[in-house]
Design goal:
Elements: E1 7-9, E2 12-14, E3 21-25, E4 33-38, H1 42-61, H2 64-80, H3 82-93, H4 97-117, E5 123-126, E6 133-141, E7 144-148, H5 156-167, E8 171-175, H6 181-193, E9 201-203, H7 208-217, E10 221-227, H8 230-242, E11 246-250, E12 255-259, H9 265-277, E13 287-293, H10 297-309, H11 329-344, E14 348-351, E15 370-373, E16 390-396, H12 399-407, E17 411-412, E18 414-418, H13 422-431, E19 436-439, E20 455-456, H14 468-473, E21 474-482
Parallel strand pairs: 7-8, 7-10, 8-9, 10-11, 12-13, 12-18, 13-16, 15-16, 18-19
Antiparallel strand pairs: 1-2, 3-4, 5-6, 6-21, 14-15, 17-20
Bound molecules: nicotinamide-adenine-dinucleotide.
Length: about 475
């Protein structure tokens, strides 16, 4: 096995104890096997956690700005390897090369942001009732943190978990998605290149069942940061509670956009298509429902359909392709099946709905960008996450009905409105049940220095990135000092 495709534990590249591997396949062409990656088990997880636990006290004892210096250097290494990382990311995840580059640059920014956080005050001085008492609080690390990540942002999400964890003096075991192990290897190589002390960052590949579960259960793990599907998140939360760990969950979405008659319709169409179809709709913040005011429904739906039909599907390195493949064959067939069911149940199929017919694309897991019209709010496709390039158009009588439809789902990740009216925009910001609200913007995308996370079933009420990361990766200690008179 190539050393680059092993686990990274205690500062060394180690083959899994199981001796088993899993193939990593390019979703744009199943004949392209990128490599065999470890299918690790409990023993590998245990080793990684023990190394992380051993390294933690020394790492936390470093002055915070010195920890930040490692992150600053790691950001520079990622930036220097941008093209290599982005090409690997595109090849294993399927998104376009510009998007893969954008995601990698976002990881650089995140790393720099969290490096800078190590220079900020880490506590408060509190007035004491005692005349000679010095009372203060300070933020201290949690210990070993587990990061369990999905495949759709294989560098940004691991970095937005690992960078703040490390900045605040924790050590980390990363269990990346089994669909995108190469990008995680690239990240580990960047940490290795800057001489991060052994055991501070560890990488264990494997399935959720064989590697993820024992990581969450491990008694030396103090906190779990998870991004992925709702079912996995609920499972992790139960184990975390049983085993006394701090946890945060960022999960699915069914993100809605409201379009009012006074909107700039042209720019609304562009941003809705971007939100729905870039990255083949495989973003937790992807636009999946468009709730259109009845006065403009016919005109707006026609514009969406016309523009969607002109979008080209193709591999990530085809500059003409707007969207690439979905992650795997089972996702492709499940997305197409969900569209067919919705169509049979009475939705209009206005664009897409199948795999592309081109012979050149037959080895990839492609789904044409799909628009469903007149989708009833109660229908499954309007309520459940599809995680593919599928957009549901819905019709509302007025703003109040649109908001009711927007909020009447279990998720609450992101929401947007297109309007020129300030009052409507502000009412929307107040009433949308979503952790991320955009006015005249795309549902997807948030700046790394701002808190990120959802409401309702999309999250565990926690937030990531920005200053919110400090809340999760630290705990507060209150200290009082009195003179020994
Ligand atoms: P997933 O839940 O299948 O897997 C996520 C990670 O959890 C993987 O590393 C997987 O191996 C691991 N895992 C699976 N079962 C586990 C278990 N029992 N114990 C421990 N770990 C386990 O999700 P996915 O298919 O990789 O990602 C897609 C989902 O992620 C979508 O629902 C999407 O909305 C969501 N997502 C959310 C956000 C957000 O910030 N809200 C961002 C990106 C993706």
């Amino acid at each position: 096995m190539d050393s680059r495709t092993t686990n990274f534990i205690g500062g060394e590249w180690r083959a899994p104890s199981t001796g088993e591997t899993m193939p990593n396949v390019n979703p744009a062409d199943r004949r392209d096997v990128i490599g065999e990656f470890p299918s690790s088990g409990e023993q590998d997880v245990d080793l990684a956690v023990r190394f992380a636990a051993e390294a933690q006290l020394g790492w936390a004892a470093l002055p915070a700005p010195a920890r930040g210096e490692f992150l600053r250097k790691a950001a520079d290494v990622i930036e220097g390897r941008l093209e290599d990382i982005a090409l690997g990311l595109m090849r294993e995840e399927g998104k376009s090369l510009p998007e893969a580059r954008g995601e990698t640059l976002r990881a650089v920014t995140l790393m720099r942001y969290h490096a800078a956080q190590t220079m900020l005050p880490d506590g408060d001085v509190i007035p004491s009732a005692g005349a000679s008492t010095f009372l203060y609080s300070l933020r201290v690390p949690l210990g070993v943190c587990a990061a369990i990540t999905p495949w759709n942002f294989p560098i940004a999400i691991p970095v937005w978990k690992c960078a703040p964890a490390l900045a605040f003096g924790n050590t980390v075991v990363l269990k990346p998605s089994e669909e995108t192990p190469l990008t995680a290897v690239h990240l580990a190589e960047c940490f290795e290149a800057v001489g991060l002390p052994n055991g501070v960052f560890n990488l264990v590949h494997g399935t959720g069942e064989a590697a993820g579960k024992p990581l969450v259960r491990h008694p030396l793990v103090r906190a779990v940061s998870f991004t992925g599907s709702v079912d996995t998140g609920k499972h992790i939360a139960r184990i975390a509670v049983e085993t006394g760990k701090k946890y945060q969950l960022e999960m699915g979405g069914k993100n809605g956009v409201v379009v009012m008659p006074d909107a700039n319709l042209e720019s609304a169409v562009t941003l809705i298509l971007q939100g729905a179809f870039k990255s083949a709709g495989e973003k937790c913040t992807a636009t999946s429902r468009v709730i259109i005011h009845q006065d403009i429904y016919a005109e707006f739906a026609a514009r969406i359909v016309e523009r969607t039909k002109a979008l080209k599907v193709g591999p990530g390195d085809d500059p003409a392709a707007y969207l690439g493949p979905v992650i795997r064959e089972s996702a492709q067939s499940s997305i197409i099946q969900q569209i067919e069911i919705a169509h049979q149940q009475g939705c209009e199929l206005l664009a897409g709905g199948a795999a592309p017919a081109e012979a050149a694309l037959r080895h990839g897991f492609y789904v044409l960008p799909t628009v469903l019209g007149r989708v009833p709010a109660g229908m499954r496709i309007a309520r459940e996450e599809v995680f593919g390039p599928v957009l549901c158009l819905m019709r509302a009588a007025d703003f109040d009905e649109a908001i009711a439809m927007l909020n009447d789902i279990e998720f609450g990740l992101s929401a947007a409105i297109f309007t020129r009216d300030l009052d409507t925009a502000l009412k929307f910001a107040e009433r949308a049940d979503a952790g991320l609200v955009r006015i005249n913007g795309e549902t997807a995308g948030v700046e790394p220095q701002a808190p990120f996370g959802g409401m309702k079933a999309s999250s565990s009420f926690s937030r990531e990135q920005g200053m919110a990361a400090r809340e999760f990766y630290t705990q507060t200690k209150t200290v009082s000092i009195d003179r020994a008179l």
